[in-house]
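In keeping with the milestone schedule agreed at the kick-off meeting, the structural modelling team has produced records for the first pair of proteins. Each record is given below as a sequence line and a C-alpha cell line. The laboratory manager (R.T.) confirmed that both were archived under the project's standard naming scheme.
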Amino acid sequence: MVLLVIVIALVVAAASRHGTPAPTPRGVAHRATLGPPRALSPGLLGVDGEAIIGPGVWTNPRFLSAVAALRPETIRVFGGTPANFWNWRAGTYVRSPRVPSTLSALRAHIRVTLADWARLVRVTGAAPVFDLNMFTSDLRSQLEMLHAARALGLPVSEVELGNELYLPQYAGRFRDGAAYGRAASRWIAAIRRAFPGVLVAADAYPGRDSNSGTVDRRERDWNSQLLRTLRGASALSLHAYFTSGLGPRASLASPAAAEKMLRAPERRWAALERLISRLPRRLPVWVTEWNLFDTVARVHGTWAQGLAVAAFGLDLLSAPRVSQSEYETLVDSAPFGAIFGSTAGLQLASGRGGGPVTFRAVLARAPATPPFGLATGGVAMQGLLGALAGATFARSMSFGSAPVRGMAVAGKTGPGAVIVNLSRKPFLISVLGPLRGLPYTERWARPITLVTGTASLRAHTGTTGSTFDLEPFSLLEIGTAG
C-alpha cells in the first residue's frame, strides 16, 4: 500500500509536466519532468570483477568489507579481458602464447580461486554473472567450472559467452561473427541442458566511441553475421566506453572543458541506443562493461569522471532494453577502479586487460590512495547503488533546459532519488512531494579534483524541503543510505 501511494504521488507530480517546460525565470525553481515508470528487476546494476590485482587482495577482510559497503547487485566473475585467458582451476592465467605479455607476467603473482569468488559473492549478497573463457579454454572445462561454482554455493543463473571477441586479436579463434554465433549456439544448448533456466548472453559489437584504434570490417559486420547463426541466446552483451571529447591540451580546470566532457555520456548513450534499436527486440541487452575511456586528455581519476559515471549510469538505469549492467571495474587503480587496490591508485600506467594502452595522469606526482577506499567512479556508484537498494521501480528525471538529470525511485525502503548537476552553475530545483522531508547528502568539487574517497569532496547533509539549491558539479542523493 505504501509503495502504491508513492507511485501514485510520483505520477500525479508528473502529470502536468509533459512536453518541454518553458524557460525558467531567475529565482524560480526548475520543475521535474518524469520519464515513464520502469520496474527494477534484481541484479540491474553491478561491477565487473577484474581478476588482475596482486596477491592478497581477494582474501583481504578490508577488501570484502569495502565491496559489501558498495552493495553491488551483481559481480561479473573472472572480469572482462582476463576471462579470455583465465584458468579457473589454477586461479590465474593459462599458460599459452595467446596470453598478452602483460598478463602472463602476472601469472606467478596472482591466485584467485573459485572459492575466493564464492566468498566475495556470499559476503556482498551480489549475484554472479559468469564470463566464460571461449578463447583459451573449451566447453567441457567451462561446464566443469560452472558445476564447481554451484557446489560452492554460487548460483548459476546468468552466463556471458566471452569478452569482446569481435576484436581483431581474436580472429584466429573466430573468423567472423557467424563463426562465433555457431560456436555460441552449441555452448548455449549445452549450458541450458546442464543448468535449466539459466540466462546466456552472446557477445555483440557495441560500436565505438574511442580515441584509440580504428574499426575494422570484422567488427562492423559482426552483429549482422552473429544474428544469422546465433540460436537460443537469452540476451546480447555490449560494452559502452566513451571518451571525454577533449584534446591533449585541455584542462578540467576550465569549467567550459568540464561541461564539454560531461556532455560525452549523453552523446555515447544516444549512439548506443540507436545501435540497440537495430538489435532484435526479443533479446534484452546486458551492458557488462562501461566507463570513461580516454587516452588523450588528462581526465581519469577526477571528480569529472565520477560525474560522468553517474550520468551514464542514469541512462542505463532508465533504458527498458537494458536488463543488467556492470561498471568497469571493481578493484584497480584509476582509470577504472571503483575501489583502489593499493596506495598507487592514481599513478596511471599502461594496461587495460593486458593491452598496450597508456592513460595520461592529471598530476605527475599524484597523491597516495587509501587501499580499498573509494575511487571517483566508486563514489558515483555508491550513490546509484544506494538508490537502488530496496527499490522496485524508477522514473528518470529531467529539469527543463538545465543540465541536471536524475532518477526517482520507490520501493520497500520508501522513495529516494539521485540527481546530478553537470554544470558550473548552481540550480534551484523543485523537489517532488514524495521526496520532501527526506535525508539527503550532496557532494561537489571542482571537476579537476583527484578523488581519493568522499573526503576529497565537499559535502553537506540535511533534510529536503520543497526546493533544493544544487551546487555546481554536484551529486545529490535523497532518501538513500549513500
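The second protein of the pair:
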Amino acid sequence: MADIIKTGNAVSFSRNISRYLSGTDVLYAKQRLVALGFLRAATKPRFGDESYAAVMAFQRANGLTADGVIGTLTWAALFPAQSASGTAADADTDAIEIPSHIPNGIRAALKADISQVTGTRRALCLRALNYAIDPDDPGDYPRSLYIRGGNLFNKDLSENVITVARIESGASRQPEYYDDGRKAFMLRAVEHNAAITGADCSGGVVGLWRKEGVRPSGFDANANTLYASHCAETASPKPGDLAWKSGHIGMYVGAGRIVEWAGGAYGCQLTNMDNRRCYDYVKGRTSKMSAWQAYGDPKHY
C-alpha cells in the first residue's frame, strides 16, 4: 500500500496529470479526491480509470472543463489554499509544463517555444503532446493509434477510444490500411491499453480543434482541405500552425517538432520537421519519411 502523504507535507503542482501517470503528485491529488468524496480510496500512486472518472466528476461539480486531466485550474480547485500563495507568473509557468513522457532532451526547447504563444495555440500544443511518442524513445506501443477515418475527439467531445470491434470493422472495410502486420499490431496495442485513442492525420487536427473550441464539435475536414481552406501559408511556423504535404497533415508544436498521426504502423509521433523519421512498430525500426511541402497559419486563432 502506498504511504499516506501527511497534512502539512504539501506537494506542489509540477505537471499536467493524465491517465496512467504515476507519482507522489498523483497520490496527493487522489487523497484530496477521497477527502472530497469523489473517489473511494487512494492506495496506489497511479492515475487509473477510477481516478480519471473522479477527476471528471470533480471538474463538472466545479464548473471546469471535464477532460479528466489535472492541469493548473483543476489543481487550484483541488487545493485552493495552496494555490492562493502562488502568483500569476507561477501559474503561467505551470501551464506550459511539457508532458513527462516527452524525453528530457527536447522538453526544455519545447517549453521555451510554447511559452512564446498563449491561449488556444498553447492549449493545442500541450494537448497534442499528450498523444505523441518520440521516434527515438518509442516504447512498446504508441500512445494513440492511426485509425483511418477516425477523429481524436468525437462530436460529444469524448475521446475516440479504439476497441477490437473498431479495428475489425476497419480492417473489413479498408483492408489496405491494416495489412502487413498492422492489424495484429493494433490489436496488441488495444490489449495493452484498453483506453488507447485513435485518429488519422486530419482527424488528429480536427479532434484537437473540436476539443479546444477552434471549430464546432461537428466540424470535419480532410488534410488537403484543412490546409487549403483553413490556413494561410507561412514560411516560419509557430506552435499551433499546421504542417502539410499532399494528403497528409500534422501540427507544429515548437522546437522543430511536429505531432502527426503518421500511419497504421506508427500511430501518433513527435517528428523532426527537418529530418522526418517515424518509428515503425511492426518492423521494429525507424523509417525515413518524405518531407513536408508547406506550413499553414490557421485563420481561426
